[in-house]
Amino acid sequence: MCSLPELLPYLLHALQGQRGAAGSHEHLIPQKGRSRPKDGSVNASSNEEMGNGQRAFSALARLPDDEIDLARTAMLIAVAEYPLLDVDGELAVLDSLASAASRRVGAEREPLHALNTLSEYLFDEVGFRGNREDYYDPRNSLLNDVLSRRLGIPITLSLVYVEVGKRLGVPLAGVGMPGHFLVKHQAIDDLYVDPFNGGVLLSESECARRLQEVTGDGLRWDSGYLAPVNNLEFIVRMMRNLKATYVRQQDYTRALRMINWLMALQPEVALERRDRGLIHYEMSNYGDALDDLRGYLESASAGADVAAVQEIVGRLRRLIED
After folding, report:
1. In what order do the strands lie in the sheet with 172-175?
2. How far is CA 186 from CA 106, 122, 173, 219, in A?
3. Per-residue pLDDT tens over the stretch 186-230
4. Residue pair 225/211 in contact by the 8 Å Cβ criterion
5. What's the pLDDT score for residue 108?
């Protein structure tokens, strides 16, 4: 029998090169309330909250990409853990960071100067840094926690960098390199900012080495890995990271929530239906698991994992019949 841990290489597909995202409209997110529990705890979502999130992300998926607000959408993800989150208050933190940074960047918007100055401010002065000690802490993927703790993973630190830059009029874009998210200035083609490592600037060859450090020899370098991502891709990548973190922690209820939201954003992605089926299987939701895994096997995009999924489907049929 295949167990969920044996299928983790499939379930964690998002960690190696998949890019994605979504958007956000102000009226979809609660605006007032306590910022976060004082004890740092998080709250499990009810079925109603999960359904509200799915509807919100379905609406966001219909927005033109340039209308998607990255920071507000990231806060929508955080609202699942902090239902009374003061979204406007959290977004004001980004405004304050940009206000302070503007005095350092000044009127000069020469691209390299802007990058260096912004990096010095955010990483050297304010103290944002990559959380190497506890990389898979879910709080590294929740923007409100990243802002308060000054700790994050590559993609959330990149989001902070991009959003502060946007408020300064510095045109930045996320770069979805597999395993290690980066940032680029839209006017510079051959330099990339690594927010997880203090804003160091990388050439393409250095990015290739960084990829090898992160993923080993499993991926051959492709310059397409340095293509900018759009807003939808940015958010989906964030959500897949959080989903993978929850699976690693065997927090299947939260992982299921992330998958449902991802399917609301991208209903055409069959791999999410497969992953949802595997999560249902682990949670003993056998009927739901069978429906999802059958649906995955019937899809045109079913891949190298078909034999393993078929074995699970056979076992589910026997469990249900018994």
Report:
1. 172-175, 182-185, 192-194, 200-202
2. 19, 19, 7, 26
3. 999 999 999 999 999 999 999 999 999 988 877 889 999 999 999
4. yes
5. 67
Q: Show the DSSP H helices in 8-119 as ranges.
A: 8-11, 47-61, 70-79, 87-105, 111-119
pLDDT value at residue 32? 33
pLDDT of residue 50: 60
Q: State both tokens at 278.
A: 């595997």
Domain ranges of the chain: 10-266, 268-322
Instruction: Give residue 55's pLDDT.
Output: 83
Distance CA 222, CA 250 (A): 33
Q: What is the pLDDT of residue 293?
A: 95
pLDDT score of 29: 30
Q: In Å, how far are 14, 88, 101, 249 from 243, measured between CA atoms?
A: 9, 25, 33, 10
Residue 18 tokens read as 């998949």
Regions of the chain where pLDDT drops below 70? 1-51, 108
Distances (CA, A) of 34 to 4, 53, 134, 245, 254: 37, 19, 26, 25, 22
DSSP character string of 103-157: HHHTT---HHHHHHHHHIIIIIIS--EE--TTTT-GGGG-HHHHHHH-EE-HHHH
Q: Which residues of 24-47 are buried (b: 16+ CB within 10 A; e: fewer)?
A: bbeebbbeeeeebeeeeebeebee
Return the pLDDT at 56: 84
pLDDT score recorded for residue 49 = 58
Give, in order, the Cα–Cα distances in Å from 153 to each of 19, 36, 136, 159, 247.
15, 20, 9, 10, 17
Backbone CA torsion sign across 253, 255, 259, 261: positive
Report whether 301 contacts 310 (CB < 8 A): no
Q: 243: exposed, middle or buried (C-beta count within 10 Å: 0-12, 13-18, 19+)?
A: buried
